């Protein structure tokens, strides 16, 4: 067969069909008219069997050629419902494809040769049909039927249009024998990076992975699934709900969405910690540490740490609202802690402080203390006299001794961050009121999620407010890193009766993760594997990572921690080089026809000629960046299992009839699809302050009347 030769010849006419026709005709003669071939009826039957066997063999060879030529132009449909998706406890299903080798590079190079163009490029009939459809777009009804007929997507239509996936079908069609491709679950701890430009299938690949993670059950227990979705994909939310329902995990399903607080769970990013200093690290870690900003960042860390220690000492759980409140006014916290401390250690101290307060003359105070309340000054004087040693008191006292003007300058970088996290109704979600028993919205933290083996959808509404989405995403990542460190040291059951110190697979899917990541993302992928973290990150280009993190070296550090690479279509060649530069070169063969003639008389010979083909080998890259740029939608190159290159296509989603969501989540999903509220209630869009709370009623009525008038028109 063709595969046994150095150079395959699959892009050619299926000449084997001629032999099939001859064998079929000969077999008919041997059965019905054996005397025409000088055969007896018995030998005619024997000859018929021989001709049919030869014809069947040649038909198989012809079908290989025909199938190859068909796949080069058009791949068969590949769809799969959620129920049909294979879920394994050992492997992660990706799609259908094949392992790329030298043979496929050879075949791909052949498709670019001019002599094979008729088998690769669209046929003249196809091109004329598309031009006809363009001309008849606005034609009358009878002519429009003709355009509809040529656009009818059925196999009987010889000019039917190609699927709307773009790219080069030949990249996958060069291997007719594809099979299911999967990744061993043991490889996922090495983390996975998915790169692809907009609308080429990243979210579909995420749905494949997330669906299996939700339904997988190992050792009698489900796995943790955490999904960060900055832009808010309604279909992804719907898929997660349906899969949780199918797996019986609705009680473990949490939805957190910044744009829709009425339907969202609540979360306190600094409410749970192993060491009190983690609170300051999570907050200050989001501030810039480059150049002159490093000093301000260190001061912000110290100041937040002082506030957090005081809040914990007062028996309160820290949150962003309280931190912002005391950053703006540290005096109140200083007085409150002093009251608690003196009530426990020196009950008569407060009488002395009140007496000192009555004798204070502001003219004699230092410049830094002149603007402070007299009660604060009195407490400071009393502490100077008594020389009380308390770490929390000492920290608060050092903070109030700063000149207020100078103090406001050095916390100027901290205030914008805290205001992003506490403005409007976002404060309800990030600084939950634990005492409000009337609020039905659940409050979660990462350790609770991991212990429950829960599923969490995080919608950050980045299209509405990128800055707030990034700040919340960073705080969640930082909190998750802290929890991973605790699990790495003590296990997930630390502090519980019968704790075994075990770990569980924590599947973290971060879509558009370049919008969320900061420096805290590096330790998550660098060291999180020991705690069971399995990060799958989705983004568009390498430059997105570098632009966000602000350093080429750190961007390389991030990318270097991903062991599995899935490369969909990209538009940046530097991103494509991330894949192609890791692949070896291979030898491909080229055939060059050569001929010669000699008319010199040599004895009895007056003319000689010679014709032959010269086969040469040349070293070329296994794939070029241009091939990555030319990938159709829903297809990718995957570098998995230690650098093995696979060419994969993901299944297209098929509708499931049982996809039903509750009314509140259905309303949320519909609103996410629209991107905004309906025109009838646009002034009360969920997640934002109602317009009538910030504008006079008569002005709101004017806007409402204008809107109704436009709708009537």
Structural class: alpha/beta
Query: What's the number of extended β-strand segments?
Result: 19
Mean pLDDT: 86
Shape assignment: elongated
Adjacency order of strands in the biggest sheet: 3-2-18-17-14-4-13-12-7-11-8
Q: Radius of gyration over alpha carbons?
A: 36 Å
Termini separation: 72 Å
CATH C-level class of the largest domain is Alpha Beta
Largest sheet: 11 strands, mixed
Percent of residues in β-strands: 5-15%
The stretches of 5 or more residues where confidence is low (pLDDT under 50) are: 676-694
- CATH topology descriptor of the largest domain: Rossmann fold
Task: Characterise the protein shown here.
The protein has 713 residues and is of the alpha/beta class. It folds into 5 domains: 2-79; 108-171, no CATH class; 188-265 and 441-584 and 622-635, 3-Layer(aba) Sandwich (Rossmann fold), CATH 3.40.50.300; 277-420, no CATH class; 676-712. 45% of the residues lie in helices and 15% in strands. It is built from 28 helices and 19 strands. An 11-stranded mixed beta sheet has the order 3-2-18-17-14-4-13-12-7-11-8, with helices on both faces. A two-stranded parallel ribbon has the order 1-19. Helix 22 links the parallel strand 12 and strand 13 (533-539). Helix 8 packs parallel to helix 9 (234-246), helix 9 runs antiparallel to helix 27 (663-674) and helix 11 runs parallel beside helix 13 (330-345). The longest helix has 33 residues, at 41-73. It is elongated. It starts with 15 loop residues before the first helix and ends with a helix.
